[in-house]
Structure formats: C-alpha cells, structure tokens
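Weekly sync notes, structure subgroup
Attendees: PM, AL, DS (notes)

Item 1: joint prediction request from the bench team. They want all two components modeled as one assembly rather than separately. Inputs as received:
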Amino acid sequence: MPFMELLDEYADFDFHGFLASVTANQVERVLAKSHLNAQDYLTLLAPAAAAYLEPMAQRASALTRQHFGNCIFIFTPLYISNYCVNHCRYCSFAVDHHIHRRHLGLEEIEAEALRIAGEGIRHLLVLTGEARHKASPEYIEAAIRIIRPHLSAIGIEVYAMTEEEYGRLIEAGVDSLTIYQETYDRTLYAQLHEGGPKADFAFRIDAPERACRRQIRGVAVGALLGLADPRIDSFFTGLHAHYLQQAFPATEVSASFPRMRPFEGGHFQVEHDVDDRLFVQFMLAFRLFLPRVGITVSTRERASFRDHLVRLGVTRMSAGVSTAVGHDPEGSTAQFEIADTRSVDQMRRDLAAFGYQAVMHDWNSRYLAVR
Amino acid sequence: MNDELVIGGQVVRSRLITGSGKYQDESIIPQVLEAAGCDIITVALRRMDFDRPTENILRHVPKNKILLPNTSGARTAAEAVRLARLARATGCGDWIKIEVINDQKFLLPDNYETIKATEVLAAEGFVVLPYMCPDLGTARRLVDAGAAAIMPLGAPIGTNRGIRTRDLIEILIEEIALPIIVDAGIGRPSHATEAMEMGAAAVLLNTAIATADDPIAMARAFRLAVEAGRLAYLGGMPGASTFARASSPLTGFLDQTEA
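Output from the run, pasted for the record:
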C-alpha cells in the first residue's frame, strides 16, 4: 500500500477532537510504554503532553545517544539554480517573485564543490528550484558527476522526479533524497501551490517511494511548519517516516521539522506559529515514536537553540550554509534567511563543547566501485 | 593452564574486542584501548575518509593493535565484498568483520548475504568474522564458507539489553568448533561476564563504553568483567538447581525397609 492510501485512511479522523481530549493520564500511560504506536505518537503531540517535556527529553536524549552515539552528522547545502516555475506562496523562489535568479554552470559547480570540500565538508546537499528547462534532470546528473570526486556523500533536494530519473541520479552518485511535502493537508496544499508542476500533491508524496524502489540509501521527509496545523503535519511527518521505514527497511529514513523563516518577496501570513516549546515537543515525540530515525535541524534555527537541541534527539545538522545560489548573496536571492551563520570550524568547536563529535564523513559510495 | 584464543591462526591475548564509533571525542580511543586491554579494535570503513588521511579515524588506533575493519553500511554481499577489498587495498590488513544489514529499524544482520560474502572473502584469504543472528544452520554454513570465528548478536545492536539470545548462543557454543564471539547487545559489564561464563570465546561491544560518562573507567570495568567470566568458566561453576533439595525426598521410601 502506498503512503498516499495510508494518508487517505485519516481523511475523516477528528484530529482536533482527539488532541483536545488527551489527558495527563493518557500521556503518562504512553510514556510508560517501551514501544509507541501511531496513536501514542499523536498523544504526545497533544497540548496535554506539553507538561511532560522534561521526562520526554530525558528519554529522547538517552535513546538518541544509545542509537547514534555522541555524534552529529554534518552536511552543507549547495544551491545550484534558483529558477522556478512554481507558485509556492511561502517561498522566495516562486515564479512570480522578481528576485535575482542564477544558474550555475558546471565549472562553477565544480569550483563550489572544491571550495566546500576545502572547508572540511564531506557531505553535500544539492538544491535547485523547479525549472526543468533550466535545471533539467540531465543538468542535475551532470552536476552530481562533476561534484562526486570531491565529496564523500551527496544528497539532492530538488523537484519531484520520476522513478527512472531517480534511478539515473542514483547511478550518477546520489546517496540520499530530501523532499518535504510542505503540508500533508491536501486542501491547503492546493491553495498554496496554485500553479506549476508542484501542484500535483500525489506525485510529490510518492516521490520518496519512487527513489526507495531504486535502492537509494537515504530519504528525508518533513513538513514546513507554520502552513497548516503543525501538530497534524508533525503527526503525518512521523507517520510518513514510519511508513518508509516499514516499507523499505534497507533505506535510512530521516525527518526534519523546518519552521517558516522570513523570505524575499513574501507577504505570506504564517497562520500557525510554532514556538520553541512546541518545536521541542514535536522533536521529542518523534524521537520516542521512531528511536532509530535521523532528525535534521537546519540553520533555519538560531545557533543557541540548535546547541540545546543537540542533546534532545538531533542527529544531523547543516553548517557553513548559504541559501543563495553558489554561496553568493550578491549574485542571487536567498531562499530564506538563515539564523545560524556559524562556520564549519565553529560548529565543530561548539559541538565539542557540548560533548558531541561532529562527524564529517559517514559514507562514500565511491568505495563500492572497488572491484 | 594455557588459555589461548586463536583466531585465523593468530593468538589473541584479550577476549574483549571494542569499537571506535559513537565517541564524543575520538582522541580518547588510545586510553580506552589501554584500559580495556584490547588487542583487537573494530573500525567502520564507512567512517574512514581515505581522501583525507589526516581526518581518518585510524590516526587514533595504536599500531600494535589488530585492526578489524567492518563493512557497516553494506546492504548486500557484493557491497560487503567491495568494502573488504577496499580495506585490504588501503592497508587495513586481512581481517574483516562482515556486517550486512538490510534493516535500518533494528539493524539486524542479513544471514543469507553474510554467508555469501564470507564465502567470497575467505576464498580471497581474508580472516573473516561474520556478524550474524544466532542460528545453528547459518553458523554451520559460515564454518563451511571459511569463517575464522562466528559473531552472534546478544541483542539488537546498540540496545544494551544483554544476552537476550542466550539459548541460541549456547547452542552455537556447544555445536560450533570455531570461536563464538558475542557481538552486540552487551550494555553492562555483568552482561559480558554472563557471555564469558557461558563459554563464549570473546565479546565485542562498543556503545556501552563509547557512550558512558567515563569511557575509560567503563573500559576497565569491562576488562575485569570479561576476565572474571572467563575464569569462572574455566574454573567450572557448580550447577545451579531450580528446585530446593527436599529433606524428605519423594523417593526416600525406596531406601526404607518395609516393616
């Protein structure tokens, strides 16, 4: 059964009624269990669970240390093109925003890869907007092939592709796919994506499964918190991660809880504010539900907050980040403002001060080319 | 009494093997190995950055240790074989711990792929230590495939839950002539003692030391625990009885003379 069908099963579920009805007793019963099911997870997302952040944090911290050690995996994003034909109302890259557009040539991409590798980064996440006429699958594939020799592991965060296209990119050296559904609320999704190929909700939600069928090593899912009711989107993020873990046990699944950040050209009204306490509740509930699934926290979050999150369940962080194409804010508009501007070296030092090792290298599929 | 552990023709003094992952600071590894008295250390090939030797974890491994690279990250026998060949080609020696895992939820090994990788690598002259779910049929096939030791899990990796597969491991110890090294699940020194009392040849553990508040103290505790368990096994522990010995035995009438 595809995840889409599982999502459909919740179509008539009264989330608000359930969340409002959760009592302290129910939360305590869930916290007494050793393995949580989906309903337990939803229970921990309820307002009543907010009073239990400390016991949740103690358990989340212990589980994360047990399964991932005192380690945080470090990566950096590289935007190679911000041309986009979509109309996402919450994103500066949207087609109707008059921003500085840029599209890196292959030589520029290689220069960027070398610069990033020179900072000690070994894991790279390559990002584009959605504009097949500019950033075509062939262009992205060529970019991967040119970056590959300079870095250890490469992820992509690009538009939803077909299974065949994912197969070609994996063959070219892509190790992981990040694709956020933005919101699991179909009605709202339609309103937020009125034009462009991204309007196809089903094609996007099926994307991780298409990549998994091509034996990609890792997939990352998430929702952009602030668009829809964040408790419900957090629930579906967990359900999605759980589904992928069950359906594709060989694939490393991870998730993220990105919060809305200020962006260029945006007058988007964030309907659902997610404060720090609520964000932490989401992360802790997720960790208790899925002890072995990775959690990524990006530079959307400020440095001091990220430092504290390290002990609560985070396994992966970005460092040395720019959300402008080619690390050049003068040449192109950033996708959103970053809140943590620390260099890679500073991140390593700060993590060490918190008792964590910054792991720069965790896989290199070039090793599998050995005959 | 000469109590030597021989693996792949090499005498190993310590029956405690540890790993190199999950530390907050890898530079502590030499002190941990010293405290643990380990001869063998396993290192994940996936973490080795051969492009950057100065960043490579091997810089923390003393030269006099036996390096046991592992194929963590391999999802098939073919991937494990390639990682093993890479290890040999980059000077990591001939020892290899095969880890083939297709299951990211429990990190349980794939016994079928593990047997296939063992066959290939043993034929190429590797000293192969396969990590496996304890199963007698698999263990026998691994022996036939040329394994140098068998490494059944005590509990899923990283869980610290102890020897949950005790009965199955006891069967392997009883039936398999190769050293049985209990790998994974050992979270406390008492678990290590239990495995050694059962007659395991050695134990391999990492999480319990690497994530301890004081890894050096924990390494020493495990060293003592492994030694205690081995001594107890060699000393011949008295059998434990489930039932108390009745002062009025049920069969006592057999010794009585009828009046």
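Discussion: The CA atoms of residues 44 and 88 of chain A lie 31 Å apart.
Action: AL to compare against the crosslinking data before next sync.
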